[in-house]
Write a structure and sequence with these properties.
The complex is a heterodimer of chains A (about 160) and B (about 180).
Chain A: H1 2-25, H2 37-49, H3 66-80, H4 85-96, H5 111-144, H6 148-160
Helix pairs in contact in A: 2-3
Chain B: H1 2-22, E1 42-49, E2 54-58, E3 67-72, H2 77-92, E4 98-103, H3 107-117, E5 123-127, H4 131-135, E6 143-147, E7 153-158, H5 163-179
Parallel strand pairs in B: 3-4, 4-5
Antiparallel strand pairs in B: 1-2, 3-6, 6-7
The chains are: A mainly alpha (about 160), B alpha/beta (about 180).
């Protein structure tokens, strides 16, 4: 009886999970046609690379906003018209600014954005190395600094216990 | 001594960045169009107007004068809040035409909305597909563009204009453009 219940529950969750994954595959317009597979691949890659400005933390592929739909349509039309990635990128950035790209270009404006992680990593490594050195040196120091009398007293203590 | 102060320095720098970050509005994205030529477009008017050149509007005809492009829609709630300020602006600035861009809207809804709330626009462009909006980089309605006599976008306001943004941002921008119109 309880085994049956478990089985039903498992099946139900499998169905629900597959439904959920289906729903997230395409937020909108499931029927997008292309002439070649290459065009489709480019389209799908570009939807991942550009931001929906209405809902700022989603890319064009994942957003349901009307604006994202318009931009998807525009990208598709330009791909079908034979535009290359560079010109589509220029088109989007000219209208919506650098912010539309999820992978900002390396420029003077984005210098801090690009370099901060590397700088922080180096600082972290430097601090780590220094701490390791200091603690290694520290223990040696305390051992050698003991006077013969103290060491003898310590040995005596250990022997007694 | 210097190493003791290092964490404090890091804290202060981080704190300064976070403080500046907090006081900014993340939904306000600087427009790449500022000081660049406004997109030239040709589109249908919401209502044909024989005096202004019939059924279609051509933005090239605006050259030589300062004008305002206000992006709005009848489905847009904040547009209602903004509307009285636009009406007031249009009434007090005769020399500056205010053009409405009716963005992704149903034309009959848009006309009804204007009858109900008042019509400050010299003409209204019907952008049902959002194509003109796309060219202007519109991402949040309402948006207001200030375009100078040379056809360049000089100022852009995202979101509804209210008493404060009118006084502190938009009207000063208008004054600046009137002093150097191209």
């Amino acid at each position: 009886m309880s085994q049956n219940l478990v089985r039903v529950a498992v099946r139900l969750s499998v169905v629900l999970m597959s439904l959920a994954s289906l729903a997230s595959l395409h937020a909108a317009e499931p029927m997008v046609s292309f002439e070649t597979d290459l065009q489709r691949a480019r389209y799908e890659r570009m939807l991942e690379e550009y931001r929906c400005l209405k809902c700022q933390n989603q890319n064009l592929a994942g957003s349901n906003a009307a604006l994202a739909g318009d931009l998807r349509r525009e990208i598709r039309q330009q791909i079908l018209a034979g535009a290359d990635d560079q010109s589509i990128d220029t088109y989007l950035v000219a209208r919506y600014g650098e912010f539309v790209r999820y992978r900002p270009r390396f420029s003077l404006n984005t210098l801090v954005l690009w370099l901060t992680p590397a700088v922080l990593l180096l600082v972290g490594l430097a601090v780590g190395v220094r701490m390791a050195r200091r603690s290694a040196g520290g223990t040696q120091g305390t051992m050698t600094e003991q006077s013969p009398d103290t060491l003898a007293a310590a040995r005596e203590l250990l022997r007694k216990s | 001594m210097a190493t003791r102060l290092l964490p404090l320095a890091v804290f202060l720098i981080l704190g300064a960045f976070l403080f500046v970050g907090l006081s900014r509005d993340p939904s306000e994205i600087p427009s790449p169009l500022i000081n660049k030529p406004a997109p030239v477009f040709e589109a249908a008017r919401l209502e044909a107007d024989a005096a202004q050149g019939g059924e279609r509007f051509d933005s090239a005809t605006m050259e030589g004068q300062i004008w305002v492009l206000n992006v709005w829609a009848s489905w847009c709630g904040p547009c209602i809040a903004e509307h009285p300020f636009l009406v007031e602006f249009a009434a007090t600035h005769d020399a500056i035409p205010v053009i409405g861009l009716n963005y992704k809207d149903d034309p009959s809804d848009a006309s009804a909305w204007l009858v109900r709330h008042g019509d400050p626009f010299d003409t209204v462009i019907s952008d049902t597909d959002g194509d003109v909006g796309l060219d202007f980089g519109v991402y949040g309605v309402p948006e207001t563009f200030l375009i100078d006599a040379a056809g360049r976008v000089r100022y852009k306001h995202v979101g509804p204009l209210d008493a404060q943004s009118m006084q502190e941002k938009f009207l000063p921008a208008v004054r600046t453009v009137m002093e150097s119109p191209s």
